[in-house]
Amino acid sequence: MASIYNSFFVKKIKISDTTHLFYFTKPKDFEFDPGQYVSIEVIEHIKRSYSISSSPFEKYLECVVDISPMGVGTQYLLNLKKGDLVPFFGPLGFMILPKDLNQVPSLNLVCSGSGIGPFKSFCNYLRNIKYKGIVNLIYSEKYSKDFVKIEKIPNINIYKTVTREISENYLNGRVIKFLDKLDYNKKSLFYICGNMDMLMEVFVLLQQKGVDSDRIIKESFYS
């Protein structure tokens, strides 16, 4: 049940000029599912949504944020000092894992930019519960310096691709080029998170490959 909670700012970590990790204390009575997000009132009557990138097993609430828009939300976060009170409303969102994960042979995750947030939470959670299925993650950034570290688990395949540089260490091109890396088992689930254009393009292509729409879970916002 979504409610208002009080949290406190802990720290931020700079991944690159455009990508930061923000950490907040986790209220003792706050419970969430991996994939959910919170809403923060950044100035009076104006709220911004931030996906939780930490798992429920972790001490702090972590959010992956693309700061490049430099809007009111970004400015609010960048001006926070350690110990500042940060009220938030949540948890929100329905892009969560199924309760019967043992019946799902594979999870296919496709994201761009800070859309990695909920999938970082997924991966940390799946490692903790020792999920035995296969996880396929296609993760796109404009530049390799923007990649957020994803903890490896024994059964995960991570395909990182960059779109605005040529790299020998990563795949090159948009995520749609690599959808053949996914598992199209009839019981597999597909999750998409990132900018709206990418999300809808991947959604349509998955349907063309025979994936039923009820097996595709998508989140159209990203910070």
TrEMBL record:
Family annotation (CDD domains): FNR_like
UniProt keyword Electron transport present: no
Top-level taxonomic group: Bacteria
GO molecular function: 2 iron, 2 sulfur cluster binding; metal ion binding; oxidoreductase activity
InterPro entries according to UniProt: Cbr1-like_FAD-bd_dom, FAD-bd_FR_type, FNR_nucleotide-bd, MRET, OxRdtase_FAD/NAD-bd, Riboflavin_synthase-like_b-brl
Domain FAD-binding FR-type: residue ranges: 2-98
One of the Pfam families matching this protein, by short name: FAD_binding_6
Cofactor(s) in the UniProt record: FAD
UniProt keyword terms in alphabetical order: 2Fe-2S, FAD, Flavoprotein, Iron, Iron-sulfur, Metal-binding, Oxidoreductase
Protein name as annotated: FAD-binding FR-type domain-containing protein
Species assigned in the record: candidate division WWE3 bacterium CG10_big_fil_rev_8_21_14_0_10_32_10
